[in-house]
Amino acid sequence: MKQRITVNVLTVRVVIIAFLAVLLCFFSTSVSFGVNKNQMKFYVDENKDAGVNGTVNVELLSDSMGNIYLPGNADVSKLFLSWNDKNYTLKSPDGTRYESGSAPIGNAGQKITYSVLDSGETIINKITFTTYCGSKSVPALFIKVNSSNGKPTMEEVNDSKDKSVVGEGSISSESVNAYVTVKGRGNSSWTRSKRKSYNVKLFADNQQNQKYKLKWLENQEKKTNKYSLISNGIDRSLMRNKVCQNLACDMGIGMPMKYVDLWVDGTYYGNYLLTPKTDYTAPPKGYMLELDNYADPDDPHFKLKNLKVKNNTTLITIKENSSDATSADIETYMNDVWDAIRADDGYNKKTGKYYGDYIDMDSWAKLYLMLEYNKNFDMHGGSNFMYRNGMDSSDKLYAGPFWDADASLRYARANTTISVPKQLSAAGWYIENLNRPGCDCWFKMLGKHKDFRERVQAVYEANKQAFDEVPMHVDSFKNEIRDSAAMTYQKWPLNEDTFKNSNVGLLTKNTVYEKGTKYEQKYCKTVIWNDYAKNLKEYTRVRSKFFADNMPKGIQHVPAYAKLRSTRIKYTGKTIRPSINVVEWDGATVEKRNYRVTVPNNYGIIGKHKLKVEFLGTYSGERILTYQIVPKNCKINKVKRKKKKAVVFWKSDKTYYKISKKKRRHVSGYQIQYGTRKSFGKEAKTITVKGYKRKTGNITRLKSGKKYYFRIRTYAVRDGKRYYSSWSSCRRR
């Protein structure tokens, strides 16, 4: 018996020891995983011979997964994994061991798995690395930030665009490194995307005394060391700015742009557009202005009379001034220009000067065409640049450069006079139809002048081929950045978390516009990047066709607004045709021969109706106006009061009208309102008396000894909705 007990105890001890060993092993492995995740960092060293001009950090998604983002022209056969802790080695599936700096990486799209060994040759983890490469035709831009001695980091810049960092930069298409400063840029785009845009200055020396100019712009007339890195953070296609700037460059008012893939401190930031800063076109002896709803407090700015969008006053900001003119001189000149443009005959009443003598008609016609083609809401006052070469009377105001097209080419604003589907459609005129009563838009004021519209038409004819070729360029840019776009959205997924409140190009289902017409457009549901690129091609295809068909006829002018004299009309028993006012921008009434009103069937009966106003002659476009026909009034004949009760008497309405030979009663019932105040405030109560035959209404629970006011109105039910007459005059009892 004793022997049996001893054996059992030994067995239990062995089991306990084995269990503790397993626990110890598990605990040791868990700790190692933590070390790997938080302390062990992987990277690919700089190797210019292999097409990598800077260190590339491996992005660890978890303890067991990591992504390697490389330039498109990288030679992966010459690139190797390195890590910060030399006590560890990597072991491949075939048993080969690698020290830091010698572990091969996979080709683009390929996964490779390594076991992580500690100094005791124990496997503490397995990590799978996936390699992604950008497009071969897209250069790589590497920036290394100097954040020593308390200087700002790139993370701090991303938190506040007012901060800037300094460092060194290298672009694969340039053979010389440069010293750089980086600062955040953008207004709404800064807050609407996780991918930020930046302004960059390049210098040839660390003291920032000698400017460095990219060789990429050697063939350009002007040189600069100031650039912008545009993230296209609200445009999922990444191509709207590039497509529009390419067209603008063809017309001579664009900014040269180049796609680059950006790495900062080894971290991949995605695909960007590199372009000279907008002051690139600033004249050496003149000044450059921006028409926008935002103004940097450090920049001098001013307002022009009634130049605004709804409640937002549009500002003129002086961006650069190399002339002898003061801010006051420039403001006076711009007010003179604006007064001439706004004038119906185009003449400034004070100076007697014609608006065409103030501005360069061709450049403004080109900018007008750009905003019209891409249906850019910024035409109301956002990122519109202009400049003047000097202060002589012969120095005109030029438009340009064209800027900021990420929210265009199928982008809509709900609070406008054009319906959202019409804004999103590639057919139809935009500037002349997008109205804001009480707001004078710079480009709409230009468009009201016949000679300016004729100049727009002539400029289009001279540049027709460029407009026709836009869809072809969409395909070209799509092929150029395909792999870079895929790598960008591998890092920054195509979802709202990345794009926040931006819906540019977003479609939740397949959609057709202008169905059955020659401008029919078929857009697919957007899931992957290729869907956004495909839809952009479809839009430009139809937009270019619409321009080709209609621009030769010329752009016709649209009145400021058309509105009903009353949107609530009392039914009289006779067919009622609502009257409307059509008004020009200067307040003049438009003659009836210049528009046609189409009303629906049964437009005079009680209910809600819509009518269409079509503009004719020198005008174009249409307006849809809504109005109601309501029942006629009823009045109280008398009120009998007895302590806490009252009886209200009126004459019943037994009239009717016919719809499709069927009789419909004019009135469905009545409402009586009563209260102790003549104003019928919150304490007033209402009772409903159903039936057109009723002549009396009983009211109870009144306060004895209190005087009450009574009034009545009729109602009619049409299609399940009640329509009320106005209240009658009140009776006091």
- Spatially, the strands of the biggest sheet line up as 11-12-13-14-15-17-16
Shape: globular
Structural class: alpha+beta
Number of domains: 4
| DSSP summary, beta strand count | 40
Which stretches are low in confidence, meaning pLDDT under 50 for 5 or more residues running?
1-38
Distance between the termini: 112 Å
Give me a quick take on this structure:
It contains 14 helices and 40 strands.
Walkthrough of the structure:
- The chain has 733 residues and is an alpha+beta fold.
- The protein folds into 4 domains: 42-133, no CATH class; 140-466, no CATH class; 561-630, Immunoglobulin-like (Sandwich); 636-732, Immunoglobulins (Immunoglobulin-like, Sandwich).
- The chain has 14 helices and 40 strands.
- A hairpin with a 6-residue loop joins strand 29 (607-615) and strand 30.
- Helix 4 runs antiparallel to helix 12 and helix 7 (361-373) crosses helix 10.
- The longest helix is centred in the first third of the chain and has 37 residues, at 2-38.
